[in-house]
Design goal:
The chain is an alpha+beta fold. It has ten helices and 24 strands. The strands form six sheets. A nine-stranded antiparallel sheet has the order 6-7-8-9-22-18-17-12-13, with no helix packed on it. It has a five-stranded antiparallel sheet with strand order 5-11-20-19-16, with no helix packed on it. A four-stranded antiparallel sheet has the order 1-2-3-4, with no helix packed on it. Helix 4 crosses helix 5, helix 7 packs antiparallel against helix 9 and helix 7 packs parallel to helix 10. The longest helix is centred in the C-terminal third of the chain and has 43 residues.
Length: about 575
């Protein structure tokens, strides 16, 4: 191979090594022992705030708040067919949300938030040092609970948690929280700003990427956010010089836009989220902290908890103010989130290929309604995509066959002008033009598949519908289809990505050879690149690509049965302009 080819091969290998290092850092070190968090038991006294694993930066100065007296923690339950909420008198919020119809790896229902962290909906003056006083809990009807507390300043806070009155099943993960502040004192009450807790999120599977565990918020219809990796020390690449020290807290003031702040904020992992939407005021600040959710010594698994800052509160004696919040705590079902009124679907974080991901997800769910199986839906989705691309691929295959027929003549030109690369390229282009061959004609289907591939990559990485969906030996299409580990090394053996790589190699052997030998050798690295790229991703992606490879092989077989193209020179058009008589 010449120098250019060696450079290309070296860059590919370095890229693969860099990708594997990145994946290793992003993936969790081992399966979690339970659902989203380690199992915990609520203590009988008011617990202290969760402590950050690596405090580096001192907390900002805050006004001292009275330490609540110790009290016995009590909980009450609100429940519907999909969701069970444990509301606590510790701060008056949701200490735990149990998703009754979503099963974790331990066989128990998925749990969001834990009693170890800020209760969802708790009102605090400083989330980094929260004051969580004792609330009284009283049931208000079958589907509502009322929690009350009066502070030493005679500010009464009364919260009412209730399920929406609608009977639509899609609303079963929604909870209404009405908060009434009433000044029962003789003096005006002023609070320069307070926070409503968002609860916490942690990885749900042992194979989750760490960057899925995020704090997110939405401003003017566009989602923003950070993941747990933001808190770590950051260095300039390659040179290793520190760019920023590790951070204990994240805070960001939200500049008022035309709507006055952020529409919502939430804590999310790969498949589930808690989203708090203030309906009467907008969020003016977001706060977050990383915590250790589990993992072996030296390799912690991180979760994140957050809070939303609210505008100042001013109350004259006897005056009251009621705020309304909407809390979504459940799976990231795109159709459900998209039906809500405040752009909550933006928490999906589909990125650059958002429109493609949304279309493919909706189409896959539509197919599932008819087929009743997600593996079958992915196969039919692949067939539909291939059907759309079939005519383009036919033209691309014909172009490659003509290119292959020209290979002997091209090789002659390379030998003849091997000492004059510019002349050689000019003669090769002339040869293409004489025979009407487009050298990039075979690239168009590949270019079209790029947004489809990355759209699928983004969509399948967050499609909660695929959790626990089975296919042959695959127990969960949202996870790698690991069947065993290599003894002594611990490397997983994933069957579908290996099938994808083998069908890629088979497909490349069937494809008409174009370009010189060096280019063909470089192209042979593509199956290896895709294998590394997809090896530890959701099995659904490997199923899609394996099916696509088989359909493409079928198309190549059909095209090869057609007569070989005859090379004829193309007559150039007559460009002479006839004189008018």
């Amino acid at each position: 191979m010449d120098r250019t080819a060696w450079i290309a091969v070296t860059l590919c290998v370095l890229g693969l090594v860099a990708w594997e290092i990145y994946i290793t850092k992003q993936r969790l070190p081992h399966p979690l022992p339970s659902g989203a968090f380690p199992s915990v038991t609520a203590t009988a006294t008011a617990p202290a705030a969760a402590v950050s694993p690596t405090p580096v930066i001192a907390a900002p100065e805050i006004s001292p708040t009275p330490t609540p007296a110790a009290f016995t923690e009590k909980t009450e339950t609100l429940r519907n067919s999909d969701l069970e909420l444990h509301l606590t008198n510790r701060g008056g919020g949701i200490s735990e949300a149990i998703l009754l119809n979503h099963i974790a790896e331990n066989g128990q229902p998925v749990r969001l938030n834990t009693p170890q962290h800020l209760p969802i909906g708790a009102i605090v003056s400083a989330p980094q040092a929260p004051d969580l006083p004792e609330f009284t809990i009283a049931r208000s009807g079958e589907d509502a609970l009322q929690l009350s507390h009066t502070s030493p300043e005679n500010l009464t806070t009364r919260k009412t948690f209730s399920f929406p009155t609608t009977s639509r099943r899609k609303d079963n993960y929604l909870v209404n929280m009405d908060v009434e502040f009433r000044n029962d004192g003789a003096s005006p009450f002023r609070n320069p700003g307070y926070y409503a807790a968002l609860g916490s999120a942690a990885p749900i599977h042992g194979t989750d990427y760490s960057n899925y565990t995020r704090l997110a918020w939405c401003v003017d219809g566009k989602a923003k956010g950070i993941d747990v990796n933001w808190f770590a020390e950051q260095n300039y690449p390659l040179i290793g010089v520190q760019k920023r020290a590790a951070q204990e807290f994240y805070t960001e003031k939200i500049a008022p836009d035309k709507n006055g702040g952020a529409e919502w904020a939430g804590a999310t992992n790969q498949f589930f989220a808690t989203i708090v939407t203030p309906l009467t005021e907008k969020t003016v600040e977001v706060w977050g902290r990383r915590f250790v959710a589990g993992g072996p010594e030296g390799k912690p698994i991180y979760g994140i908890e957050g809070a939303m800052g609210m505008p100042p509160l001013d109350l004259a004696p006897g005056q009251s103010k009621t705020l309304k919040f909407e809390i979504y705590t459940g799976p990231k079902l795109y159709a459900v989130l998209a039906s809500m009124d405040h752009d909550q679907a933006e928490i999906m974080n589909f990125g650059l290929w958002k429109l493609v991901s949304q279309f493919l997800l909706n189409f896959m769910n539509l197919l599932h309604r008819f087929l009743g199986n997600y593996a079958a839906a992915i196969v039919v989705l692949t067939v539909a995509i291939k059907g759309v691309l079939w005519p383009l691929q036919n033209k691309a295959n014909a172009s490659m066959r003509r290119m292959s027929a020209l290979s002997p003549k091209m090789q002659e030109l390379r030998e003849k002008y091997k000492d004059d690369p510019q002349r050689m390229n000019a003669e090769v282009m002339k040869l293409y033009k004489e025979h009407g061959v487009n050298p990039v004609g075979g690239c168009l289907p590949m270019l079209i598949q790029i947004p489809i591939f990355f759209g699928l990559l983004s969509m399948l990485g967050q499609a909660v519908e695929l959790r626990n969906a089975k296919f042959l030996w695959v127990r969960d299409l949202s996870q790698p289809d690991t069947v065993a580990h290599i003894p002594g090394l611990g490397w997983p053996i994933n069957i579908l990505p290996l099938c994808m790589a083998l069908t890629n190699v088979w497909l490349m052997r069937m494809t008409p050879k174009t370009g010189d030998t060096t280019q063909q050798r470089v192209i042979m690295f593509m199956p290896l690149i895709f294998l590394f790229f997809c090896y530890n991703f959701a099995a659904a992606l490997a199923l899609y690509y394996t099916t696509l490879n088989l359909l493409t092989a079928l198309q190549l077989y059909v095209n090869k049965r057609q007569p070989m193209p005859v090379l004829t020179k193309v007559t150039p058009p007559d460009r002479r302009v006839k004189k008018r008589r």
